[in-house]
Amino acid sequence: MKESVGIYAKNSSANGKGNLVVDNSGTVITSKEKSVGIFGEKATVANNKTIEVNGQESIGIFGELGSEIKNTSTNEGIKVIGESSTGMYATGLGTTGENTGKIVLSGERATGMGAANSAVITNEKEISGTVKNVIGMYGTDSGTQVKNRKDIKLLKENSTGIFAKDDAVAENESNGNIEIAEKNSVGMFGLASSTSKNINLTNAGTITLKGKNQQEFLLVMLRVLLEVVFIQDQLLIHL
User: What residues contact residue 35 under an 8 Å CB cut-off, 6+ apart?
Assistant: First the structure.
């Protein structure tokens, strides 16, 4: 059944996220489309072993309403296999997402970490992509912050290390390393959908480009990125 959830943590009390704690030390596998491995509402969520995202347009860990979501697993980590799926997604003011483990993207149009509506996401370890058309980290909306403090390594073409849209702030910090191996790819990409929106990109780290750029590069990247963003927005409508 699609639109299913492996672990659903909903905190309806007046207490904060610390009142509801989810610790995954086993294996969570999503097989159908538009599904979520662990869903946290005003909760503290940690993945210490394996989340496998097989279904299309699915999410490994989703956090909202001030949740704190973390991936600490450096062994299996979060494996994003389904097309147009996301490893971790945080939305809403006070919601944070942190990766101190491993996120591997092996499904086309997949995203390692995403954020919206003033959430903050941070990569402290490793996000890697083994197929084309993937995004390491993505953020949209005013107040949203995207921070890379370690490694984003994307091995195939038409891929983006960090993508910021519509007033989101993205930073590749001093210890941040973005490595892009193939053609038609970009380390950091900003998009404003209207003249009232801003682009905020900062690189204080290292961006390494190994692939060739072709003349149609920007048009190809814009088309791919817009497709990924549209799919993510449609998925959030269902959650």
Answer: 2, 3, 4, 5, 6, 55, 58, 59
